[in-house]
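Moderator note: this is an archived Q&A kept for reference. The question asked for a predicted structure of one protein chain; the sequence and the answer are reproduced below.
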Amino acid sequence: MSWNEATIMDQRIRFVVSAVQQTASMTGLCEEYDITRPTGYLWLGRYRRGGFAALADTSHRPYTSPARTAAALEDRVLELRQQYGWGGKKLVYLLSPNEQLSVPTINRILKRRGQVPPANRHPPATQRFERDLPNQLWQMDFKGQFPMRQGWCYPLSVLDDHSRFALGLVALSNTSTDWVWPSLVAVFRAYGLPDAMLMDHGEPWWGSANGYGLTMLAVRLLQQGIVVIHGAMAHPQTQGKVERFHRTLDEAMRRQRPMPDQLAGWAQRLAEFRTLYNTVRPHEALAMATPASCYQASARPYVEQPPAWVYPADLTVRTVDQLGMLSEQGHRYFVCEALVGQPVGVEVVGEALLVRYRDLYIREINTATGRSTPLHCRITEPHKAHV
């Protein structure tokens, strides 16, 4: 979900909350949120049928498709797919002249017939983006692994989106939070905090158990006031800069034979590469300047003990227990395993409990059915931390 979509979702949630709680007339609410009355009733109807999660944008795909490819031709595409395992770019060359289809059409057939795993269903990268200033966005990822005499070396990379400056390139023998977090803290202490960090859907910054990927590492980033962004699933182009950095790193490492066989050797080798990359190697995207010449440290310092978050006075504050659940009126509901011991704000909206962690809506709980539905929406209303 993009930030614009998240803002729209937040406004829809706030509109429905106000409507359910009858804080104003429907006409007054629609005027306040700058929408028409039919639109207001549309969002209210969606909520009543499917809860807050139903307020997200739905597909505009038509119910029927008169131009849909004939079933026999779809079967032919499916037969070739099962024989070769290829995608549309290759299968198009195997069709006869009277079976001509475009590559997008073949790929749509494969997706519709269940031949494309969900993790591979992603749109192409239609444009590249770059932040205007250093520290507005950092990209973070592991560069695969290199073999050692015992175990593997996992290089952890942290790259500034604007300047391509490699803030961190750390040799780790483990990808868990216990190893990654101290490395990140060292980077934060050296260069300050970014506004946001972009990561993929790998461990330890993404978890599949709670529906919105929140992990203990992500929670620590949020506590530092860092916006956590995850790229599109199985879509490495979202993190194009760090991916390109990793290709350059891999090429450089393989030119230097033999490769280290212990972690200390890898640490030295990566440190040497980082210095060369930042201060010597000219970068085409920077008009042949070096990343170090285009970067400056953040003015936001790392906070050793982040201040407690203050929720609005009309919310009930609950602490998430050791099983990731909260208690409300004698019942226990699942919230998030990564928030054990953390305070969350609970807002009662009709039969629903709207749960937020800091400035994120994270859960909708239906007290009538006990159903707990994940939400992931940033709250745009003013908030503050307790100093």
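Archived answer notes: The first helix runs from residue 3 to 20.
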